[in-house]
Design a protein that fits this description.
The complex is a heterodimer.
Chain A lengths: L3 E12 L2 E13 L4 E5 L6 H8 L7 E6 L2 E2 L5 H11 E4 L11 H6 L9 H14 L15 H13 L5 E5 L7 H16 L3 E5 L11 E6 L2 E2 L9
Parallel strand pairs in A: 3-8, 3-9, 6-7, 7-8
Antiparallel strand pairs in A: 1-2, 1-4, 4-5, 9-10
Helix pairs in contact in A: 4-5, 5-6
Chain B lengths: L31 H4 L2 H12 L2 H27 L6 H4 L15 E2 L1 E2 L3 E3 L2 E5 H7 L1 E7 L4 E8 L5 E5 L10 E4 L2 E4 L5 E3 L5 E3 L12 E4 L2 E5 H5 L6
The chains are: A alpha/beta, B alpha+beta.
Amino acid sequence: MSLIQVMNLVKTYHGGGETVRAVDGVSLGIDIGEFVAITGTSGSGKSTLLTMLGGLNEPASGRISVDEIDIYRLSAEQRADFRKEYIGFVFQAFHLLPYLNVLENVMIPLAISRLSAAAKKEKAMLLLEKVGLHDKALRLPNELSGGEQERVAIARALVNDPPIILADEPTGNLDSATSGMVMELFSRLNKEGQTVVMVTHDEQNLSYATRQINLKDGRLSGGCQAAAV
Amino acid sequence: MANFCTWCGTALEKEARFCTQCGKEISEHGSAESVRSAAFSDKRQKVLEGDKNSRDKNIIYIGLALFALLGFMLFLDSLPSMVNPVVERQPVISEPFDYPATPVRMRSAPVETRDGKIIFKLADLKKNKFLRFDYSSGTSTLPLLAYISEEGKVITAVSVCEPCNSTSFHIKGEQLVCNSCGTTWEVNSLNGVSGSCQKFPPDAVPSVVVGDEVHIDEQAVASWRRRI
């Protein structure tokens, strides 16, 4: 069984007397060490799928198991633990706290950890070094470029050692040169064994992925080709 | 085996070994055991069983708190039950009984001093329950009291409420009460119950029953000094 196993997943939204099936019967598996790009036009359900994979969005029916844990049969508290242990999120808008410096932003997910303050700091610094920003640890986010801010967000996503990184349009706010740097970083993390699932509609990003899954109207559409690596 | 291709999601026959869509061999994804790394089983345990470490710690903290609370309660409990060593050794002269809720007042009783003993009649005590008499040495007079506790013991003491200087008391229910300041003590133990002079009940002096008399050692009374 794969690390992430999705079975017959359905998500419906209700509005204006209409029911929209945003995700309409998706089944797929993602193995450890894959770099999967989920593509599709806007409204195809890719972001909905990603939030469901992350345990943030309960499906109408179907099942998602991660590491053989059926995540929507967990209690809310267990699912919070699941997110903490298994998932690192990276968003298009970086969601850094503007009044905390870079180091403190990376340390936020460690706030409830039992590590000592020194150990938290050390861990955050190591990750900042990994994303090439250790020399900017004490800057505020608004003193950084968009690409740098996204790399801080990636370091923050990695700080709890999650087996899975979920990224939703991580380069959507970046120019193509900066996008390339961020994608290089994802690719490097992936080569080090990190499983990455990324929603994107940037053609340029597909070459970094080891597999592309295409969604159309909430269904998988012929997306089983492995991208050229 | 999953009934769809774990590579592309195409629905498959249950026993299919290859995906009819992309041709991937289904079995090559292996079993869960070969996929899962040790790091994940640690995480998996944290999710499914909660953070056991912190839960254990909480249990320890709660246990310690309960233990401390218990200790504190025992400590509190031990305070009023501190045994007055003099009262403890006093002789029993009657069956246990209850004092009435209406006040029992002190009665004056004759007393004599003979052979270094202060002596009063047991019959007087049994009749009146609560006696008051004065011991006079050459230079001074010291008021004394005697009563029968609810346990049936003879209690003899210096009849002074030292903080307020009153020399008269009454017994009401199971309590000895100072007539002046109203401080109350347990009749049986002389432990404080309420009021401002609780720490200084009438100072008990030892006595013994000899025949139909009660003897108090004159020396114990003559050498008595105020505690405050």
